[in-house]
Amino acid sequence: MKVALVTDSTADLPKPLRERLGIRVVPLYVHLGGRVYRDWEEITPEEVFQKVREGTAFPTTSQPSPEDFMKAYGEALQEADHVLSVHISSKLSGTVQSAELAAQEFPGRVTVFDSQAASLGIGMMVLRAHELLAQGQALSEVLEELKRIRQDHFVRFSVATLEFLRRGGRIGGAQALLGTLLGIKPILTLKEGRVEAVGRARGERKAREEIVKDFRAWGEGRKRIRAFFLYSAEEQAVRELKAMVFASGLPVEEALVSELGAVIASHTGPGTYGFYAYSL
After folding, report:
1. Which of 23, 235, 246, 277 is packed most tightly, with the most Cβ within 10 A?
2. Of the candidates 107, 267, 145, 100, which has an alpha carbon nearest to the alpha carbon of residue 195?
3. Residue 231 backbone phi and psi in degrees, to 5
4. Which are the contacts of 239, defined by CB distance < 8 A and separation ≥ 6?
5. What gap in Å lies between CA 278 and CA 25, rounded to an integer?
6. What's the CA gap between 137 and 272, in Å, rounded?
7. Please, what's the b/e burial string for 13-47 (b: 16 or more CB within 10 A of its CB; e: otherwise)?
8. CA dihedral in degrees (126, 92, 152, 6; nearest 10)?
9. How many Å apart are CA 279 and CA 112, to the nearest integer?
10. Burial 123-146 (b: 16+ CB within 10 A, else e)
11. Residue 111's Cα: distance from chain center in Å?
């Protein structure tokens, strides 16, 4: 059985990579200044931040329509027997719901998977699925591996300001950190698909040290770890974090470094950095 992969633009997979692997991407939408833009196709994160700096209202975002997914599934099923559709956490977006509605139009031929993640957390699962399918593994085996990764992975990130998360309604358990002292860096994670605070640190360096300390605790005893680094607007912080991760003594492989797309960046703001990791 030939299985095609579909994901959404919040997976933040670079276009050359997803095109090379034949992964179809359905874009979410950014609403800004009275216009609607397709994520990764019609607007960049820098354009979002520039408009915010110029005084344009904060961006909002919306999920693809069921019709958007129906089109992608129809095209994919012309070349494949089945579609595996992997998407952003249903706690953060209605994207999974749109995908499931569309899947009903192709009974038994589309499997929708809620990653309970965002950005490269989705991307790493899509890439793992592609790897296993290319090795000839059955869809059932691929789904078991995706469930394992969903249950057992590491994610930490920090933002320059909580304002974007607050305005976008995605702040979740990080709400308690609002109004903290200047210079305090929030350390965030996604837990069961929601943004949660796991700590705070005074200054960038200390925040990175705390992230790496948590990573060491998670990674102890693991034989092989793949790390996926993400950033928004400013790459220096993620470069420094990456260097610390590779100096951690753990068996880490760099899988990907990618900038956040406009939808995720609209909710996290400039100066966001962090990483996802899973073990083999």
Report:
1. 277
2. 267
3. -155, 165
4. none
5. 23
6. 36
7. beeeebeeeebbbbbbbbebeeeebbbbeebebeb
8. -10
9. 23
10. bbbbbbbbebbeeeeebeebeebb
11. 19
Which among 231, 80, 215, 87 is positioned nearest to 155, based on CA atoms? 215
Beta strands 60-62 and 82-87 are: unpaired
Residue the block writes with tokens 């990907």:
256
How does pLDDT run across 204-237, given as a tens digit for each residue? 899 999 999 999 999 999 999 999 999 998 899 9
Q: How many CB atoms lie within 10 A of CB 97?
A: 15
Cα–Cα distance between 136 and 279 in angstroms, integer?
21
pLDDT score of 128: 98
Q: Which residue has the tokens 């990456």?
A: 242
130: left (phi over 0), alpha (psi -120 to 50) or beta: alpha
Sorted by sequence, the CB contacts under 8 Å of residue 145 that are 6+ apart come out as 128, 129, 132, 137
Any idea what the Cα angle at residue 181 is, between residues 178 and 184, rounded to 5°? 85
pLDDT at 148 over 90: yes
Residue type, 185: K
